[in-house]
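Dear colleagues,

As part of the handover before I leave the project, I'm documenting each prediction I ran so the next person doesn't have to rerun anything. This entry is a single chain, and its sequence is reproduced below.
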Amino acid sequence: MCTGKCARCVGLSLISLSLICILSNTLLLVPNGKTTWTNVDNLSLQVWLMAGFIGGGLMVLCPGIAAVRAGGKGCCGAGCCGNRCRMLRSVFCSALGVLGAIYCLSVSGAGLRIGPKCSMDGKKWDYPFQDTSGSYLLNRTQWSLCKEPPNVVTWNVTLFSLLVAASSLELLLCGMQVVNATIGVFCGDCRKKEGAPR
């Protein structure tokens, strides 16, 4: 596959994954789809770190767009430089994307391991699963410890799991694009030859 076509496929995938991360992080801010509990005291630190919005979202959206542009026509119109300039930009953007994906993966993994912040007695808000080292994930009977917000454990586990999966894919794709774009910088885009007039 040409470096340009590969960059375009990777870029479109990264854009989709970054939007999933942004949406997931936004939903984490409104447990059960309600803003009743959206304040500093009622949401976990991992939610407020905005890893899905910043790391898996914006920091991966930029390399996604750069990769799509690197897969387009060259900077001189018809691709006279074989897209080397755009590929070089994509290398640096994808490296930034790797950092964003690692940030999102780390924070989301911690969010899964520690569990949500919730109220067990209707008054005090705390992390009831913090000392379980993630074992609460396999024991659904413990989830009923959280009284408010309702179903917060299911909400957090689902969305943080989605963030972990998406950021893992982003990490893989950004790494692939670093390699692909580096090859594109040195070898150019083979589509230049395919589209060149005879």
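Strands lie at 118-119, 125-126. The chain has one domain: 3-115+160-195.

All the best with the project,
I.
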